[in-house]
Every structure is written in C-alpha cells, then in structure tokens.
C-alpha cells in the first residue's frame, strides 16, 4: 500500500512524474519501476480507483458496482510515490507540474495521462435528463448503477442509446449494455455516452497543437512533438487510434521502452502501430473484440454495428475487425 503525500506538502522533485492514477498512469509507472527506474511519482487526487471498462457491464447487469472499485493506495505500484493532488498546469520550460494546492512538482520527464473529461453541460438539457428517472449512462458509476435497474425492468416503450460523435473513451462502449439487455428491451429510457474532451489545462499549458486539444505527440513514439521531456498516452494523447483502455496494452510498453532508451542516452526507436481494441459482449454470453491498427492519417472508430431491436443514435462505427471469442 502506498501512503500519499499531502498535496500541500508536495513541492518536490522526481525523476519521473506521472500525471494520472488511472489504468494508463499505473501501468506505465509499474513498467518503469519494474525496469529498475526509481524516484517515480504518480499524481492523482482520488481516494478510490475505478476500473472504468467495467462500468458498461454494471449498466448491462453483468457486473456489480463493488467490483469496479479499489482503494487508490492499494493499486499504486510498489516503490512508486503517490502525490494526492489535482494538476492545474504543466510548465514544460521550467519542468514543473503545478497543483491546485499551490504546490509544484519538478520533474526530469513527465508522462501526461489524466484521462478525458465528460462534458455533460455542452448539450442543453443533458444534465437534467440524467437527473430524470429515465436518464442514465455507462460513463459514470452512479449512472451505470441506475442504468442497470432501468434496463432490467424494461417492458414497453422506446430505449435510445446515444453514442458520442466526437473523441470518446471506448466510443463503442455505449453499445455494450444494449447488447446484453436487448433480449427484453423496450421502455422509455435514454442511455447516453456524453461528449468528451481533453482537460483544459493541457491546452492552456501549451501541450496541445490547438486550443482544447489533446497532448500533441509523435504518434509512433508517444513523445511530445514540441517538448522532448514530455510524454503522453491513453485518452489524453492525440494519437490516431480509437481511444480505449485496450490500446494501453501496447502504448504503455512502447512509451516505457522509449523513455528507458532516452534515459540511457539513446534515441527512442519503439513504434506504436495505432493498435486499439474495445472488447464487449454482443449478448449476455458472447464476448467480442473489435480491434484495429491505423496509419498515421486514418483514425478508426472501433465498434460493432447494432443489430436486433436496439439501435444507436449518433455516429456509426467502422474500420475495425470484429472477432467473436465465444459462442
């Protein structure tokens, strides 16, 4: 178990600073520590770690909410420091991360992976819809629990599943509870995948190529295109793959290998091929794995086209091979 430093006392310096204690940050920190790198710190404000890929299964009634949660202290890799605080900016020229507490954390290299922001308020009325008895989502745990009860009890009416048209974490995830519940669907229910965007401080820190953008990286090496000591992966990186937790399987290894090369005085040579995967079930007993690799200029949208009585409103998905792994 890792004991967090209080954010107010966190002004310090570390060789490697990882922004974000989600799946991306914990995975890459663990790889680097396993490779022998010491003096690594993960910055994350949360007491609880949520395994978000399971939220859609909670919504579909095939997993319990309790299965998605663990104490953040229990998932920090052994030998890695945890600074419990919220990042407000990165000063890439000064090699400093600034926290909401006013503290600063200096670094030799920083890995940016804070995840993605759910922009509920960008669609007029959407927040109120989620507060209504009929509104739910598989992108927030409380709304996923609500969705589970709504979808379990449906008997008549219309169910609308909405998939975001812009960048989204595992965009096809809106379909998962649809497939696991469509055998008995129909009721007046709205299940929404919210609009999503990069944390604002990424653009404000000059790490993005455009206002409001994700971290601008070389899509092969995952190193910043403008700041050689800045790296990014996961949902917050401006890569060409469909954003998903499954993409981290390759991204974490590529980034760790390249950073290890740079720390040893060599050029990064490991290349990320744009791999992405968004596993989900197409019935309560049939798992599938839509996956893809991409060229630098052809971002895919991972997912399966809906079938049966349920339908998805929003952008359709294409460019991925659908491999059934069950019967």
Task: List the topology elements.
Blueprint: E1 5-6, E2 12-19, H1 23-34, E3 40-43, E4 48-50, H2 55-59, E5 69-71, H3 72-75, E6 81-84, E7 87-91, E8 96-99, E9 104-112, E10 117-118, H4 126-131, E11 135-136, H5 141-152, E12 159-163, H6 176-181, E13 189-192, E14 196-197, H7 200-204, E15 230-232, H8 248-263, E16 276-277, E17 280-283, E18 286-292, E19 312-314, E20 321-324
Parallel strand pairs: 1-6, 2-3, 2-9, 3-6, 9-15, 11-13, 12-13, 12-19
Antiparallel strand pairs: 4-5, 7-8, 8-9, 10-14, 16-18, 17-18, 18-20
Helix pairs in contact: 1-8
Account of the protein in words:
With about 325 residues, the chain is α/β, with parallel strands linked by helices. It has 2 domains: about 5-120 and about 195-265, 3-Layer(bba) Sandwich (FAD/NAD(P)-binding domain), CATH 3.50.50; about 120-190 and about 275-325, no CATH class. Helices cover about 20% and strands about 25% of the residues. It has helices at about 25-35, 55-60, 70-75, 125-130, 140-150, 175-180, 200-205, 250-265, and strands at about 5, 10-20, 40-45, 50, 70, 80-85, 85-90, 95-100, 105-110, 115-120, 135, 160-165, 190, 195, 230, 275, 280-285, 285-290, 310-315, 320-325. The strands form 5 sheets. Strands 1, 2, 3, 6, 7, 8, 9 and 15 form an 8-stranded mixed β-sheet that branches. Strands 11-13-12-19 form a 4-stranded parallel β-sheet. Strands 16, 17, 18 and 20 form a 4-stranded antiparallel β-sheet that branches. The longest helix is centred in the C-terminal third of the chain and has 16 residues, at about 250-265. It is elongated and about 65 Å long. The N and C termini lie far apart (about 40 Å). Residues about 295-325 have low confidence and may be disordered.
